[in-house]
Amino acid sequence: MTTALGGSAQQDAPAGSGRAGLLDQVLKIRELAIGAVLVLMLAATELDNGSFLSVQGIKDLLLNASILVLVATGQALVVITRNVDLSVGSVLGITAFAAGDILQGGGNPVLAVLAAVGLGIAFGLLNGLLVSIGQVPALVVTLGTLYIVRGVDSLWVGSREITANNLPASYSGFGHDGLWAIPYLGLLAAAVLVVAALYLRHYRSGRELYALGSSPEAARLAGVPIRRRVLTAYLLCGALAGLAGALYLARFGNVDSGTGTGYELTVVSAVVVGGVAFTGGSGSVHGAALGALLLTSINSVLPAIGVSSVWVLAIDGVLLLAAITVDRLTALRVARLLRNRAAATRSLRDHPAQTRSLRHG
Amino acid sequence: MADLTGADLTAAKAQDDVAAPPSATRRGGAAGLVRWDTVVGALLAILLLCSFGFVGDFGHTLNLSFLIGNTLPMALIALPMTMLVAAGEIDLSVGSVAGLSGAVMGSLWNAGMAIETIIPLCLLLGLVCGLVNGLLVTRLGLPSLAVTIGTMAAYRGIAQIVLGSNSVTDFLQPYLDFGSGRIPGTFLPYAAIPWAVLAVIAVLVLHATGVGRSLFAVGASAEAAWFAGIRVKRLRLSMFAATGVVSALTGVFWVLHYASARYDNATGLELSVIAAVLLGGVDFDGGKGTLGGAIAGVFLLGTLQNTMSLVDVSAQSQTVVTGVLLVVSVLGPRAGRQLARTVARRRSAGSGNAPVTSG
Amino acid sequence: MTHSEPDGVPVLALEGVSRSFGAVRALQDVSVRLFPGEAHALAGENGAGKSTLIKTLAGVHRPDKGRVLLDGRPVVFHGPADARDAGVAVIYQEPTLFPDLSVAENLFMGRQPRRSLGRVDHAAVRSATARLFQQLGVDLDPDRPARGLSIADQQLVEIAKALSFDARVLIMDEPTAALTGSEVARLFRVVRTLLERGAAVLFISHRLEEVFALCQRVTTLRDGRLVSSEPVAGLTEDGLVRRMVGRDLDELYPKQPAELGEVALSVRRLTREGVFTDVSFDVRAGEIVGLAGLVGAGRSEVARAVFGVDRWDAGEVLVDGVALTRGAPSKAIAAGMALVPEDRRAQGLVMEMSIARNIGLTGLRATTTAGLMNRGAERDRALDWAVRLQVKFARLADTVGTLSGGNQQKVVLAKWLATGPRVLIVDEPTRGIDVGTKAEVHRLLSHLAGQGVAVLMISSDLPEILGMADRVLVMHEGRITAEIPRAEATEETVMTAATGRERSAA
Ligand SMILES: Nc1ncnc2c1ncn2[C@@H]1O[C@H](COP(=O)(O)OP(=O)(O)OP(=O)(O)O)[C@@H](O)[C@H]1O
Ligand SMILES: [Mg+2]
Predict the structure, then answer these.
(1) Is CATH 1.10.3470 what the domain over A12-350 is classified as, yes or no?
(2) CA-CA 20 to 30 A from B255: which of A3, B200, C195, C343?
(3) Which of A53-57, A229-233, C159-163, C261-265 has the lowest mean pLDDT?
């Protein structure tokens, strides 16, 4: 699966000597394309349905997105290292229930959140150890832990269920309220996002995540502590999935043994749509966050413009395809543009009238 | 990869005392001196023996045909999926294509069309679905994971549009008999025959033809394959198309087997298929694996579920067992390698000088 | 043979080291001592164990027997990081870069300069890279991604990386294999400065003249065993070859005068935007045409487009007068063309597949009967060519990745020669191949030409071009700037055209 992009990406890489910031330029524009699709879609919806972008509308949009943003951020960290964590949906489900269980028993909300994060870290540790020390393919292992955690969750939860009215009002409040149109959850997600982005961009260990995803062999020769870094990525991913579980509980109030089922695919789509390559070594957390925002917006837009629920799923899928297609086409166009421009500057730099003494023999 | 015995690969790896980085590690299809697909086959045999021996109802004709009938959807799709994965791609939309094909079948049946016309139409639809996946991947160079997550939603959504929340159950009995009936005197469902034919074809194509060789080459290194004159895109496209057709066929079978056409038929089938294929030792980085392993993986999962249900293991515990099995399936070979390494180290420490082997 | 070594303690040394891979004994009881200020060469045929020795010094492999000594004291390097921290910088035979990261990050991964709060100082990384590149005369943008760099550029980046360590020991495994004379000269200038500052250097090259130009001492390996370790002064090239190969060598450039036939390959005004422009030339049956030029001149790119791996934007390619479809290697192969690409690891071979299957990949049609593969035929075909090219292997079923660099190159050659091409394009055919086999490959090319094959040979090894080509085409900045017949081709005329200077005499 990881070779999916490899071949074509190589051929598309702009050839010839590049100009300053070429890499950055292409990447930036990549994310711009997703952003543009997002803005266009929201604007069109607003035109159709004037109340869509009201304060409450925006708040709902951000509320829906922030949980996905958190999990996608964690997933992006893992995917950048050329691994994947498919167990996030199960982890989200079980941590949400754990937090709910504590709160129902009259526990402290902070304790509940910490417990959820701690449980997430524990599963992250499990995945991380299996992948880094056990050196086994991440896809298989985390598909395995997806099943295991889901199974354990169902055994533990049984037919129990947590409902919003069993939760302290302050906790649910945190899941719904905010400063004007910005919900607290959104602020929290944004804070996490910024920290993760700074870490990836400006710290040696963050850069090493890219390095080992880009070429494990080269990373080994460069002395990157591969196991430790991979483990870190999984721990962070687990922690964020746990945090997301606690927030899911605050936001929706309802948790049962099926919570989070299939969520891994949504997260993976968000990450992929956001331009994080499964071949590792490229992409960014803010890209993944944009992807998450785009996906949740699609889900909010359709009901807002009065699409019948029967159509929602199909349009969802088609829009997702459209988004990645547009993104890809833009990237190709940009690459070609840069290649030609590089060529133009090069031939200008040489004497425009090149002396060619071609002799035929 | 039949002539690449597990042993030499293991030896080469085992000798390399600087541990390879995790993602560079490939399951060389080897556990100690045995290939992983053989191990899965052996596990399946052991499980079958135990089930026959200790689980009273297991050997009943009815149960066996149940087992096979329930496993067939997975077994069908695993055939093209293995090839696709060998070529370094993945298709998550298989369950949705099966659902869509079933939904179309149901609505066409409601519209009064004959099954003989409907089935080819469904297969054609599967072909189109597969081509859409394949064209998006090969023409635009999009990652197959992203594309098929998208089409997974899209195809399922179309199925919902086609059939809504209705279910069609009033198919004629002879057709339903094909889906759930048995070959007289055996426990084999009729549908096992077309599967067996497809399986033979798939094994031959993957392991005994140039196409199969090329698929593995493409999966291991698309660039080198392209330089060797292999039509990488066409090959990948045709694998997506094949996967689409077989998925549609599975959808048809599903409807007849369970006597019900609904838009949510075969939901989640993609994960089971992928789990089985992974269990069979097929490497999702492409380039490695055998169909025999994948098929053994499918039936190992199927049998395990069947047996556990018979001995009253809850569905939740079955999920846990599936997960554990997957994890063990990758840790097993790894532990085997570790063992081989220690053995080899001890052996080479004790041996003297010998001339360098050369070709 | 014992010869006087410099006094004092070697910075880094191997003592009685043995190392096997399965049944292959790559090193047996080998000792090497590296002294400050001395450039030490390592010579030997392909598969002699040179790279293994280097990887042992670098902490990639641990010796089965024997010791590594640092400043006279035994050390155990648990990994490349340990060796690096001990001041050992290594350029491996195969460039290993991070394709997704910028060139500058590639140089400084894990040891980027930092500013406040431990943040990476990106500007410092960039400027340090630019400085290093300037010193080496490399014209690369520090910000461009490493993906898509030619092998030569990758090697230059690796060199810059190793130099940036300011290491006490600099180990270089065939750093010059893909470089042309001017780049090599600049590299040597920098290395000599390091030597003057007291660094120890270990250098491998199959171009013996480079060994004589740079090194003071040479250690020769044969089949994993130490043959000799002696000063370079007083040694002749022939003497060194004798030690490596164990016998005298025949002529290195056994070029027979060609009998030219019809035009077999005709390239007409070929252009790929931004890469090369208006490239036209003919190659006749029986002719060897050399394509020379500096690194980055666009030689490989032309070869790739002609073969169909890349699309061209304008122009046409004719084989025996029939136009080829653009962007279709399978059509080119069907028309009788073969391309031995420059990057054997990414383009030439599927590294995880066996030797037999790699060679078999170009003969899937030929070894198929009634739709099914004939394993026996596939094996025979592979064995035939592997033996003809003297590939050193344990078993045909071994993965190609376990072969030494030069032997991998031979497998690529075998893979394509087995197709019996009528137009053969070879891009650096002898990169990393030892002198003995190099002569063999040259004899083979000459023989093929004698049989009427049209050969287009790209090489950065100018003597090779001059020795083998009937006619030399020279490229500069994506254009063909000169066409020089064999009689007039000299280092001077070719270099003049390659550097884009106006030719003094036409
Ligand atoms: N990882 C490995 N696994 C198995 N065999 C190996 C491995 N690495 C090297 N060898 C074998 O060890 C021998 C020595 O290889 P090495 O790469 O050291 O040769 P070399 O002298 O560098 O040759 P070249 O000039 O072709 O680079 C070869 O026979 C090679 O096949
Ligand atoms: Mg070597």
Answers:
(1) yes
(2) B200
(3) A53-57
C441 and C503 fall within a common domain:
yes
| ipTM value greater than 0.90 | no
Strand segments (E) across C387-442: 423-427
State the residue range of the domain holding C407: 351-420
Confidence of residue A346 (pLDDT cuts 50, 70, 90): low
Cβ(A248)–Cβ(A261) below 8 Å: no
What local confidence, expressed as pLDDT, does residue B28 receive? 39
Q: How far, in Å, CA of A239 to CA of B285, rounded?
A: 27
Pick the closest to residue B168 from B103, B214, B226 (CA basis). Answer: B103
For residue C492, what are the contacts with CB-CB under 8 A and spacing of at least 6? none
pLDDT tens digits, one per residue of B230-239: 999 999 999 9
Mean pLDDT computed over A195-217: 94
**Do C158 and C82 sit in the same domain of this protein?**
yes
| pLDDT higher than threshold 70 for residue A2 | no
Which of C188, C211, C245 is a domain's end point?
A: C245
From the list C61, C350, C387, the residue facing B225 with the nearest CB is: C350
- CB < 8 Å from A in window 146-165 of C: 147-148
Residue A234 in this model has a pLDDT that exceeds 70: yes
Residues C282 and C355 in one domain: no
Which ranges of chain C have pLDDT less than 70?
A: 1-6, 249-250, 501-506
Pocket test for ligand 1, best of C402, C411, C431, C433 (most atoms within 8 A of CB): C402
Residue B266 placed within a domain: yes
Give CA separation, B184 vs B174, B192, B257, C491, in Å. 15, 13, 17, 84
Residue C52 is predicted with a pLDDT of: 95
**Residue B340 falls within a domain, yes or no?**
no
- Quote the DSSP letter at residue C348: I
Tell me if C182 sits within 8 A of C294, measured CB to CB: yes
Q: Is C131 part of a structural domain of the chain?
A: no
Both C231 and C284 in a single domain?
no
- pLDDT beyond 90 at A136: no
Mutate-to-test residue for ligand 1 from C14, C18, C24, highest number of ligand atoms within 8 A of CB: C24
Q: Which of residues 263-322 of C touch B (CB under 8 A)?
A: 309
How far, in Å, from the CA of C433 to the mean position of ligand 2? 9
For residues C354 and C399, is the Cβ–Cβ distance under 8 A? yes
Q: Classify residue C463: in a domain, yes or no.
A: yes
Tens of pLDDT, residues A156-201:
998 898 888 888 888 888 888 878 778 999 999 999 999 999 999 9
- Is C109 in Cβ contact with A222 (below 8 Å)? yes
**Rounded mean pLDDT of A142-149?**
92
Residues C402 and C262 in one domain: no
Q: What domain range is B134 assigned to?
A: 35-46+55-328
Residues of chain B with pLDDT under 50: 1-32, 350-359
Instruction: Identify whether the C-beta of residue A143 lies closer than 8 Å to the C-beta of residue A151.
Output: no
Looking from the CA of residue C221, the nearest atom of ligand 1 is 21
State the pTM of this model. 0.83
- When divided into structural domains, chain B yields a total of 1
Interchain proximity B153–A320, CB inside 8 Å:
yes
| Residue ranges per structural domain of chain A | 12-350
Question: Which CATH number goes with the domain that contains C208?
Answer: 3.40.50.300
The residue among C64, C475, C96, C70 whose CA lies nearest residue C270 is: C475
CA quadruple A290, A79, A154, B274: dihedral positive or negative?
positive
- Which ligand neighbours the alpha carbon of B13 most closely? 1
- Quote the number of domains for chain C: 3
How, if at all, do strands C217-222 and C39-44 pair? parallel
Q: Which of A5-19, A32-46, C173-187 has the highest average model confidence (pLDDT)?
A: C173-187
